[in-house]
Amino acid sequence: MKKENDQLLNVLNTTHQINTDIGQRLLISQQTKLEIAKMFDLYRGVAERGQILYFVISLMNRVEPMYYCSLEYYMAIFRHNIQLANKNAEFSVKIAQMIRNTLISIYRTVAGGFFHKDRLTFQFLLAFKMDQYTNRYQPEAWGHFISNQALLSP
């Protein structure tokens, strides 16, 4: 009987230890999940700006049907610029570098293929969409700009 009790105590102690270990691992897992979600949110700005860039480029197909940029080509440029960011820099600096490098590189690469007369349209669309994204877009000013354009036409 004593031997059975000792075995039962050993099993209970082992189970308790395993339960404690699982609880600690679960806590670490939850903390890691929160850290990953936070990092994901920090990179979200880079991804959203990249999305805006691609869709502005796609809009240029309406200006001139010849303008086309495949998603595969765009993603190759995008990934390359993400990799160029200084890995040793402070995180906020690194994110800013990613955004800036991507914008400049894609603009130079893609706008170089546009007719000169259409580059201003591309610049305008890009600036307008970025202003919308960063909430600097003011509908009143936009309406004023559009309504006064009729006055400027000959």
Task: Explain this structure.
The chain has 154 residues and is mainly alpha-helical. It has a single domain, classed as Orthogonal Bundle (Helicase, Ruva Protein, domain 3), CATH 1.10.8. The chain is built from 5 helices and no strands. Helix 1 (2-63) packs parallel to helix 3 (91-111) and helix 1 runs antiparallel to helix 4 (116-133). It starts with a helix and ends with a helix. The relative contact order is 0.08.
Summarize the structure.
With 154 residues, this protein is an all-alpha fold. It has 5 helices and no strands.
Which helices and strands occur, and which strands form pairs?
Layout: H1 2-63, H2 71-84, H3 91-111, H4 116-133, H5 139-152
Helix pairs in contact: 1-3, 1-4, 2-3
Low-confidence stretches: none
Instruction: State the CATH topology.
Output: Helicase, Ruva Protein, domain 3
Structural class: mainly alpha
Total number of distinct structural domains: 1
The biggest sheet amounts to: none
Percent helix:
over 70%
Count all strands and give the number: 0
Radius of gyration: 27 Å
Cα-to-Cα separation, first versus last residue: 107 Å
Strand content: under 5%
Tally of alpha and pi helices:
5
N-to-C SSE string, H for helix and E for strand: HHHHH
CATH architecture: Orthogonal Bundle
Q: Which geometry do the CA atoms define?
A: elongated
Q: What's the rounded overall pLDDT mean?
A: 84
> What is the CATH class?
Mainly Alpha
